[in-house]
Amino acid sequence: MAMASAFQMRVCIAFIITCTLLPVGAQDDYWLLPSLLHNGGVFTYAEGTARNSITETCYVAMTAPYKMYRLQWSHETNLLVFGETHNGSLSLPLTWPSGGALTPADRGMYRCAVTYSIPPAYTQNITIQGWQTVELHVSEAPRMLHVTKTQTQTSLILTCYAYGEHVSITWESPGGFWFINPPVPTSRRKTWKAIIHEFFGYTVGTYTCKVYSNALCNIPGNRHSVQPCFPTLITRTVTVLAYVPPTVDTFSAFNTTRLLGENITLHVTLKHTPYPLANIEWMHNGSTINTSSDRMQLSSNGLRLALIDLLPSDRGVYTVLVKNDAGTDSVAFTIGIRGMC
């Protein structure tokens, strides 16, 4: 009896099996406890890995003819797959009811459990259970959310937002200089951002945000080997242009006289493209023109003003004001009206 108790203790410790002490009539069969074999551990696979490539398997040995053994895999509280046997050993690979690829919803604790029942004639239908657990982590692929740019003549702020696990973000400037946001290796399901602050003389050109994951994943079929989960970089570029003030040219006469009731069009152009985009405003005798009127119509992105059916009140000075953060330019036209009483 002492030897049986000692063996019972060794089995429980070696295989992490929770044992229920048997009544006196069953102890002659106690040496037939199942051995649940699986190394356990924590394994990380990349999001998108084929589920049927995961080769986690556990098996039970030391079975007896008059016992019913049930071996099963479950995820959290959901049963995935099971098998039963009356004799011999039983192997059961981890499988999912449906195929497809791993998603973040597949992360969590997976349990391989064994139960067996001895018929009432032997042990009053006692059930003994044991289990091993495997934590399966699905590393989420990094995702680029967006980049933002705030630029003035004297400063530049670029921000890159990304989502994922173990994410690192780097900015590469036009000169090849790298701005690095160190990864946080233990973080999961977070949103990260990397910011460039450049002041007083920033470099004009293309800046590139690069997002990648430092997570290491198990290679399907060989859980003892690991490789980078997501070696492919996600990139997005931002173009930083030099500030250019607007310079206005004109196709129309600066001073002209028209008959009462005639139409006239005032037209200007820009000698080059200003940066940032310029705001265009027309004024009549110092007051902003109401362009919602049918008699005053804007076109060509605000560079052309048409005056319809001239009235005596339309005479005076018309000024077009073009401005951006880099500068301001303007042109004035003087219109006289003939035929006034």
The averaged pLDDT comes out at 76
The CATH homology group name of the largest domain = Macroglobulin (MG2) domain
Shape: elongated
Strand proportion: over 45%
User: What order do the SSEs take from the amino end to the carboxyl end, as H and E?
Assistant: HEEEEEEEHEEEEEEEEEEEEEEEEEEE
Helix content: under 10%
- Measured distance between first and last alpha carbons: 131 Å
CATH topology of the largest domain: Immunoglobulin-like
Structure annotation, total helices:
2
Question: What CATH first level of the largest domain would be assigned?
Answer: Mainly Beta
Question: What integer value in Å does the Rg equal?
Answer: 39 Å
Largest sheet: 5 strands, mixed
Report the structural category: mainly beta
- Work out the number of β strands: 26
Name the features:
Immunoglobulin-like, five-stranded mixed beta sheet, mainly beta, 2 helices, 26 strands, single chain
Please, could you describe this protein's structure?
- The protein folds into 3 domains: 138 residues, Macroglobulin (MG2) domain (Immunoglobulin-like, Sandwich), CATH 2.60.40.1930; 71 residues; 91 residues, Immunoglobulin-like (Sandwich).
- Helix content is 5%, strand content 51%.
- The N terminus is likely disordered.
- With 341 residues, it is mostly beta strands.
- The chain contains 2 helices and 26 strands.
- The N and C termini lie far apart (131 Å).
- The protein is elongated, with a radius of gyration of 39 Å.
